[in-house]
Amino acid sequence: QPQPQPQQWRVRLLVNNAGVMLHPFAASAEGLEMHMAVNHVGHVLLTWLMLPLLEQGAAAAGQPACILSMASVAHRAAVTLQEEYFRPVGGAAGDPLTAQTYSPHYAYALSKSCNIMSSAALARRLQTRRGDRPQIVCLAIHPGIVHTALYVHLPGLLRQVQQMLGGLLMHSAAQAAREAPLAALRVFRSVPSGAFLHRGQEAQPSPLASDERAQDRVMQLTLRIFEQEAEIMSTLQPILREFF
Asked: What's the rounded Cα separation, in Å, for the pair 40 and 115?
């Protein structure tokens, strides 16, 4: 049986899963706070770049495509949208976010709220433009507590306990990678696009993550980050015109 050529591949599922947690104050190569860069901005950029392929895959299959964003129930710890976490950080005097004002717990919670908010905002925009276009369903999902290197920045004693008991009390990475997407795919036709799933069922996100104005603001702030990179924007412009 001949192997399919790359131009014949059809993409109908995107899983955004990369992440860090409780990372010490640091900036990414692009100058962004690390949680924001890895957990949110990178996911949104990949998602937007993949939209044409996902729509093509859905059209070819005659079935909806699905975008799954791995969020967390820990998003509830972020009760306000602190916009300084979206701005470049460098540790210089006058920077809005410094090592003294930085909270790793808030940074992680905000990034997970952003996963939910960007998923919901994209779902609303895709629904508005849909017409007779192929459907792309957006879902944010809490995958459970998973035994991975995500916990490397836990304080000393907690890290030791996690290493000793994690294998017994937490899902394995392989189990979570298999079960979380499958749980979402089992229900993605019966829940509204933009929903947040916990334990395979639709759940109500925090008031911040549920606020449509906050969702739209997150999208504006994220786009503002991309606008600082001419090469990224030259690639995104036709996609933004088509999908937004």
From this structure: 6
CA gap 167, 92 in Å, rounded: 42
Other CB atoms within a 10 A radius of the CB of residue 26 amount to 15
User: Which parts of the chain fold into alpha helices (H)?
Assistant: 34-35, 42-61, 104-129, 156-169, 173-187, 207-210, 212-226, 230-243
For 92, other C-beta atoms within 10 Å of its C-beta total 8
Each residue of 22-79: pLDDT tens digit? 899 999 999 999 999 999 999 999 999 999 999 999 999 998 999 999 999 999 999 9
Q: How far is CA 178 from CA 20, 143, 171, 185, 198, in A?
A: 20, 10, 11, 11, 15
Cα gap 14→183, rounded to integer Å: 15
Calpha distance 17→141 (Å, rounded): 10
Q: Is 108 a catalytic residue?
A: yes
CB 145 within 8 A of CB 234: no
Question: pTM for the complete prediction?
Answer: 0.86
Say which of 85, 102, 108, 151 is annotated catalytic.
Answer: 108
